[in-house]
Specification:
4-stranded mixed β-sheet; alpha+beta; Nucleotidyltransferase, domain 5; single chain; about 40% helix
Length: about 140
């Protein structure tokens, strides 16, 4: 890996916990020389475990550990950012994205997990692009 390599960023939000009224945003930066190979390898691991997609909530802990063991053997570098989100904040995802990406200039792709739909995803990406370039 070198300074010219690009990151793929995956963003996911946890469900809101009724006990404390918070959710958590997770930002996963994945850097790999071989993006296609990495994706294909993850799909193969999912197939080996007979799962349609890797979603932690749907896996037993035994499978989670085995899945993680296989994933960590792949050729990539990863950074994780965890951001606690009080539920009463407005525009928290936009705030989170600005803080996380403010100093990143090596992002090639952003993937947002969730049920908001493509329109929401495009709106966030346009917002981020505008704000991101302001901060560079």
């Amino acid at each position: 890996m070198n300074q010219n390599d690009k990151f793929i960023i995956y963003i996911d939000e946890s469900g809101i916990l009724s006990k404390n009224g918070r959710s958590v945003y997770i930002c996963l930066y994945v850097e790999s020389l071989y993006e296609i190979n990495l994706s294909q390898n993850v799909l193969k691991i999912e197939k080996d475990f007979k799962i349609a997609y890797s979603h932690w909530v749907d896996m037993s802990w035994k499978i989670r550990v085995k899945f993680a063991e296989k994933i960590k053997r792949l050729d990539y570098i990863c950074k994780v950012v965890i951001y606690n989100n009080p539920i009463d904040q407005k525009n928290i995802l936009k705030d989170f994205m600005i803080k996380v990406f403010r100093f990143e200039d090596r992002v090639s792709k952003i993937i947002i997990d969730g049920s908001q739909g493509k329109k929401y995803e495009r709106k966030l990406k346009l917002f981020l692009k505008k704000e991101w370039y302001k901060s560079l």
